[in-house]
Amino acid sequence: MNKDKNKKNVLILSKEDTAQSIVAAAVLNRYLLAVNAYSAGVNKAVKIDPYVRVLLEENGLWSNEIAPKHINALQELSFDLIILLDESLINKLPEFLQNADTICIEYETPTQNSKSEYNKLLKAMQMEITPIVRMQLEL
C-alpha cells in the first residue's frame, strides 16, 4: 500500500471486497493520476471473484497488489472521498470514516459466469465513476 501521499485518497466500499469495489478501484487508479483508489468491504472476504481477475487482466488493469480487504485494514488512512456501492452501507461506516465526503453509486451485480455482464460493469465504471470522482474532488 505504498501510494503517493500527494494524491487524493478515494475508498470504494462494498459489502465484500470481491468484485465491484475491486473493479472500481482499478479503473480509478488507471485513469485518474491524481488519485489513490482503495477498495474494501465491510464483511471479510477470502478471495476475489475469479471473473474479476480475468476481466482486469484482459483490460490491462490487473495488479498483483489486488486482494480483498476488510475496512479495518485501512484505519491508518484518511480519505478525501468514500464511494459506497450499496446505499445500506451508510449505516455500517466505522467511526474513522464518518467525517469523509461520501457518495453512493450503485451498479447491478453481474451474474456469475457471464463475461458480457462483467464487461458491461467495467465499461459502466469507466464511463461513470471516473468523471464523478473528478467532479467530486475538483480534479
Helix/strand order, N-terminal first:
EHEHEEH
CATH superfamily: Response regulator
**What is the CATH topology descriptor?**
Rossmann fold
Molecular shape: globular
* CATH level 1 name: Alpha Beta
Determine the mean pLDDT. 92
Structural class: alpha/beta
Strand content: 15-25%
Which percent bin holds the helix content?
25-40%
Largest sheet: 4 strands, parallel
User: Based on the structure given, which CATH architecture is correct?
Assistant: 3-Layer(aba) Sandwich
Count, helices: 3
Distance between the termini: 22 Å
What's the total number of strands? 4
Rg is 14 Å
The neighbouring-strand order within the major sheet is 2-1-3-4
The count of domains is 1
Uncertain segments: none
Structure characterization notes:
- The mean pLDDT is 92.
- The protein has helices at 20-31, 50-58, 115-136, and strands spanning 8-16, 35-43, 81-84, 102-104.
- It is built from three helices and four strands.
- The protein is globular and about 40 Å long.
- It has one domain: 3-Layer(aba) Sandwich (Rossmann fold).
- A four-stranded parallel sheet has the order 2-1-3-4, covered by helices on one side.
- Strand 1 (8-16), helix 1 (20-31) and strand 2 form a beta-alpha-beta unit.
- Helix 1 (20-31) crosses helix 3.
- It is of the alpha/beta class and 139 residues long.
